[in-house]
Amino acid sequence: ELKVEQNPLFLSMQEGKNYTIYCNYSTTSDRLYWYRQDPGKSLESLFVLLSNGAVKQEGRLMASLDTKARLSTLHITAAVHDLSATYFCAVDRETSGSRLTFGEGTQLTVNP
Amino acid sequence: EPEVTQTPSHQVTQMGQEVILRCVPISNHLYFYWYRQILGQKVEFLVSFYNNEISEKSEIFDDQFSVERPDGSNFTLKIRSTKLEDSAMYFCASGRAGEQYFGPGTRLTVT
Asked: CA of B18, closest CA in chain A: separation in Å?
């Protein structure tokens, strides 16, 4: 059974600080996805990481993938309040159309 | 920019009733999915659909659930006899290969 684990599950940080969210997974998949979810809303795609060593950046968020360690990180730089949300990582099985298996999510709160 | 749409946004039903949740996927996508998210929990896969048939389903997707793509644009999830524990947000998603795009969700409340 494919397992995806995130930590921390809850993160409260101050504006301007840096932090990293970790996502470990149990399969050999080379495809990892990060989504953002605001309360009561849908899942917004942030990053798709498709190979070992992939690094993608958008604004204050940077995601990376180490397939050998089965680990992805989502790094937050100089956090701002607007980044407050729940962040999910997800993995699929590399076959076309396969399901996504999600982690439990990291609820991020950025305090002024 | 094309997006996945879902109706209704909120459905309240009594236990034992049938509900149909509707989705319009992005038009050139080939794969369609239903996921659910119980309040405060992670997103769980229910079923995937490709080439007019179910390609994969989870253990949650038992005989009370069914999916259809009746007219080439809509994609529906039917729950035949709802239970209290079916209360959740139901997300439809569509994709080609790789990335999946999620709809806004239908909040189902079973009373």
From this structure: 24
